[in-house]
Amino acid sequence: MVMNCFPQDGVLAKHRTGSCADSSWCYSPPVCSVTIMKLTQWLRCPWIRAFLLVVIACVPVSGQDPAGLGNSLWNLNFQSTLAGQGVLPFPAAYSGPNSLDPNGQVKDTFSFDLMAAIHPWNGGEFYVDGLVWQGYGLSNTEGMAAFPNGEAYRVGTTAPDAVIDRAYLQQTFHLGKSDSKVAGRVRRRLILTVGRFAVTDIFDQNAYANDSRTQFMNWAFVNNLSWDYPANTLGVTNGIAGELEWGAWAARAGIFQVSKVANGIRLDWDVANAWSIAGELERQYSFEGHRGAIRLLAWKERAHMGSYQEVLDDPKDIALNGQLQYRSKYGFGINMEQQIRKDLGAFMRLGWGDGRTQVWEFTDVDRTASLGLSLTGDAWRRPGDTIGLAAVVDGLTAVHRQFLANGGLGITVGDGALDYGSERAGEAYYNWKVAKHLWFTPDYQLAINPGYNRVRGPANIFATRLHWEF
Length: 470
Prior knowledge:
Elements: H1 36-42, H2 46-57, E1 61-64, E2 72-87, E3 105-118, E4 124-135, E5 157-174, E6 181-182, E7 185-186, E8 188-197, E9 237-246, E10 249-256, E11 275-287, E12 290-305, H3 308-313, E13 325-341, E14 344-353, E15 367-377, E16 382-395, H4 398-405, E17 423-435, E18 438-448, E19 459-469
Antiparallel strand pairs: 1-2, 2-3, 2-19, 3-4, 4-5, 5-8, 6-7, 8-9, 9-10, 10-11, 11-12, 12-13, 13-14, 14-15, 15-16, 16-17, 17-18, 18-19
């Protein structure tokens, strides 16, 4: 794991494993022994200060109602995740603007969330999430459609940055007698959510593959890659969603804003022409005493996008993805999870997108199929530990392939040319519960045909992750 500290003039300090005698590259003084003076200088590093803030702040806090009924009027929750990830040198016949660096590199990411929840009335909850983040994904989060670090944003930052990541109101209406439960959840209710949040907080959930901070790190095992889900650079948007849960069934629908430019930080306020809608139908069940679920997803998006065919008809516009105008795209997804035994579960995702227009929000995938297993450590008396193993295959439509072959650039891929092959990736991790609120994870990923290019790779990617939460 690399910790990027920064000297006072704002120039990035070079990480070194040897002597610190080269003061032009090392933030610490020439003497490398741990001294009081060096500790004082370390505290000037914003990355270290943010780290200490997490350690000091991580104390769970809640406020009880004055009647003493035991219901929290408010509470605070914290999480922080540090991840260091590196790719070994790999063969590549050529590289382009959006290629994964074949020479090998190491990058790190850091995040800290402070979530406040206020319960002003019965069934009402208001959430605010303050996010501190820092770092970069490999090759500036480019080079693979199934990108290997779900903690890496499309635009990295050298010094820690802070934003209000979520701010939304959620109202729950209990419908009739709530005596039906599936997987421990009350299943007779209507939930309305409005404000700023991540669409994937509600849609495309999966018990075994949904959280890059505690489960798989690869994007492919967090969300359906073919769903160009509405989100700005930090993964959130504004919108409204409704969820109806009744017994073993659930239905969800929502409408959301999209970015003003492809995966930009600002949202498009021409909401009559720029929007994204999603609908999901869920069925939970029990098979021989083991819980399972299947979810069917459909989505449609309208944004100021380019057309791949238009670019091919007039290649001079390839750098701009054609003449941008408001166009629509759509797709479908299937999400399944199945408990095989108490400590073992399996998951699968399938996705299809029409692949005619520019990828606008997420990543360059038109077809995807992923499958994986998750095993808890009950058998070796480590119930808090988890082992995960998964694989994914991604593909593109013919017109999307030709666009990239002619030098077009997507959000995450674009080598300047293309010897097309389906992109394949596999991941294995061990999430070790070190202490009550602390987990450490070694992670390995293998990428075949990164960026859909058969003349690049395979690439071996290693990572470590430290996560704690209250």
